[in-house]
From TrEMBL:
InterPro entries per the UniProt record, alphabetical: Alkaline_phosphatase_core_sf, ARSB, Sulfatase_CS, Sulfatase_N
Record family assignment: Belongs to the sulfatase family.
Protein's UniProt name: Sulfatase N-terminal domain-containing protein
Keyword Nucleotidyltransferase tagged: no
Region called Disordered, residue ranges: 495-514
Superkingdom in the source lineage: Eukaryota
Domain Sulfatase N-terminal: 41-354
Cofactor: Ca(2+)
Entry keyword set: Calcium, Glycoprotein, Hydrolase, Metal-binding
Pfam family, one: Sulfatase
Molecular function as annotated in GO: metal ion binding; sulfuric ester hydrolase activity
């Protein structure tokens, strides 16, 4: 009898083989008993918001992240890892395993007043892990739609939710305004469906405290999935002074406060991982740490030496910070160079958790566990960064018979990356106090009408040598590939703001209005 074939049932009395599971599936589905494989790991998925490539201690020793440095050092650092350029898109791919072109979320974030959300026909990673027997909890930022109750985290596979539904807000007051409709400001923080008044408490402390409570109260007969998307380190720039003191040497005020916010988040991760240790199940826990997009240079973040920043299809917008930690990793303490994307966590974690991918629409993510755990050959050779037909067209169309290069898009094939249309701000931005040669910060090739760029990212990770004129065949074949993807896209869903969303109509609180 193989150990991994044994299933323990919650009652602690019944022990059976995997095959028997289907026989008593009805009981399982009815929630009377739960099937728990002895191998199912707990999963801690930590997301940092707007966290730049140059903002973690192991990329820039000026920023103090002792916990993240240690965990990444003990685990696997992902250095060819990609996310999307902004919040909702990354989170939608993380939770659905599907590209934006397949969910209608190609363009922009979900604004508070937009009746929009991650489509309900895409089961979330939490749905699949819950189905596999996990306790599932979300603590922090949602940003995947809330205009109807069906889109809230507790309707999307999470047993509990503690956090805010929108994209950003004041860290202490937990209030925010939506610029799309006039005079629409409101409070946004909930415990499941109930609004909870936490005015005055800093969100990194609040979310850490809740995550620690969940770990402490967790019934270890079930595996735990804890999704912890911190508010940190997105703007507004706010943090208790005590975290900023050690950064007196940083003169730029935004950067100094931002650094303090990072260090506070690092302490939060320490508290949460300590709680796992104290509860005695850290050694059966897989932790993923990921940013959601590149740093926002206008709010303290930095991605040096990468080009561009948050919101752009340049590397600074998407080449993300990420690592994996856990006893289950076969190789530990190394840097992984395989192409890995945020959409890959869905199949990777669902399979690792003993779940199945039944009932999902075709996934765009790949199971990367062997690649990460054993440094096995890469399974992903291609990555569609995005195609956004709603952004204004740029310049002239080059070829009538393939992808229209006036459209904003980017695609990676092997080491090659193509960008088309208006990819966003293309400057290289060093951190405020770093003295660099001015020539290194000025885009070399940009004319106003340029709408196509080709780079070899392996040789030129900072996108300094534009090669489209040297390799016309590669350009053509990559445009053909974009054309292929474009033909699989669903229409963009980016509805007009709905005045009914205004918190003034709902007791001063953001929440479902339909
Ligand atoms: C949220 O829901 C979970 C699961 O039903 C429950 O355990 C928890 O007590 C709820 N929290 C609140 C504040 O109602
Ligand atoms: C929260 O409580 C404070 C007073 O303790 C009050 O001023 C504030 O209006 C309350 N906020 C909400 C959203 O209920
Ligand atoms: C971490 O725990 C310590 C000790 O309880 C506490 O003082 C600190 O505020 C916590 N940090 C965060 C970020 O929650
Ligand atoms: C994990 O920790 C528990 C409790 O401390 C211990 O019994 C078990 O042997 C450990 N497992 C591994 C694989 O280290
Ligand atoms: C998943 O689908 C396959 C093929 O349809 C089926 O054989 C299998 O039993 C399903 N698994 C579960 C857990 O539903």
């Amino acid at each position: 009898m193989l150990q991994e074939d044994v299933q323990y049932y919650r009652s602690g009395i019944i022990v059976c083989y995997r095959k028997m599971c289907s026989i008593i599936n009805l009981l399982l589905l009815s929630g009377i008993i739960h099937c728990v494989s002895s191998k199912q790991p707990n999963i801690l998925l930590v997301v940092a918001d707007d966290y730049g490539f140059h903002d973690i201690g192991y990329h820039n020793s000026e920023i103090k992240t002792p916990t993240l440095n240690r965990l990444a050092g003990e685990g696997v650092k992902l250095e060819n890892y990609y996310v999307q350029p902004i919040c909702t898109p990354t989170r939608s791919q993380l939770l659905s395993g599907r590209y934006q072109i397949h969910t209608g979320l190609q363009h922009g974030i979900i604004w508070w007043s937009q009746p929009n959300g991650l489509p309900l026909n895409s089961p979330t990673i939490a749905d699949k892990l819950k189905e596999a027997g996990y306790s599932t909890h979300a603590v922090g930022k949602w940003h995947l739609g809330f205009y109807k109750k069906e889109y809230l985290p507790t309707s999307r596979g999470f047993d509990s939710f503690f956090g805010y539904l929108g994209g950003s807000e004041d860290y202490y007051a937990h209030t925010t305004c939506d610029s799309l409709i006039p005079n629409s400001c409101g409070y946004d923080l909930r415990d499941n469906l109930t609004v909870t008044n936490q005015t005055g408490r800093y969100s990194t402390h609040l979310f850490t405290e809740r995550a620690v409570d969940i770990v402490k109260q967790h019934d270890q007969n079930k595996p735990l999935f804890l999704y912890l998307p911190y508010q940190a380190v997105h703007g507004p720039l706010q943090v208790p002074d005590s975290y900023v003191k050690q950064y007196d040497f940083i003169q730029d005020k935004n950067r100094r406060i931002y650094a303090g916010m990072v260090t506070c988040m690092d302490e939060g991760v320490k508290n949460v991982t300590d709680a796992f240790m104290e509860a005695g199940f850290w050694n059966n826990t897989i932790m993923i740490f990921t940013t959601d997009n590149g740093g926002q240079v206008l709010a303290g973040g930095n991605n040096w030496p990468l080009r561009g920043w948050k919101g752009s299809l340049w590397e600074g917008g998407m080449h993300g910070v990420g690592f994996v930690h856990g006893q289950a990793l076969k190789n530990k303490g190394y840097v992984n160079d395989a192409l890995i994307h945020v959409s890959d966590w869905y199949p990777t974690l669902v399979k690792l958790g003993g779940g199945n991918l039944n009932g999902t629409l075709p996934l765009d993510g790949f199971d990367q566990w062997a690649t990460i755990s054993e440094d096995a050959p890469a399974v992903r050779s291609e990555l569609l960064h995005n195609i956004d037909p709603m952004t204004k067209l740029a310049g002239k169309r080059m070829f009538p018979d393939t992808f229209d290069n006036r459209i904003r898009a980017a695609l990676r094939v092997g080491d090659w990356k193509i960008l088309t249309g208006k990819p966003g701000d293309s400057h290289w931005v060093p951190p405020p106090h770093l003295q660099v040669d001015k020539n290194l910060t000025i885009p070399c090739t940009n004319s106003q009408d340029q709408n196509l760029w080709l780079f070899n990212i392996k040789d030129d990770p900072n996108e300094r040598r534009e090669l489209s004129a040297v390799y016309p065949d590669i350009v053509k074949s990559m445009l053909d590939r974009l054309d292929y993807y474009s033909n699989t896209a669903v229409p963009v869903r980016y509805p007009n703001p709905d005045p009914q969303a205004n918190p003034n109509l709902h007791g001063g609180v953001w929440g479902p209005w339909e």
